Fold:
Amino acid sequence: MMTLMQGQPAAGHISSEVRFYTVSDVMEMTSWSKKVVLRLFNDPDFPAAELGKAKVVEAHALIDYFSVRRTRQEPEEDRNGELKNELKKRMHEKAR
Structure:
């Protein structure tokens, strides 16, 4: 796990610490194979990023991703569209 400190807390989250999980971290947390986790990290809907040569995912983004993906109340198309819009919005906000 990688950790960065920031001066301002992220919107909606109390901690000012930003935690990133690597492929290995997600493999350990989920007990999934490397192949499955890499497929997840390469999915365009998954909020992964590259930090140097390492693929990482921010902790809150990972939680949000699985929270949305596990909700079966909406049709698949609508849920994925909402997820993409939310991720684009967050990435735009972080870029500021």
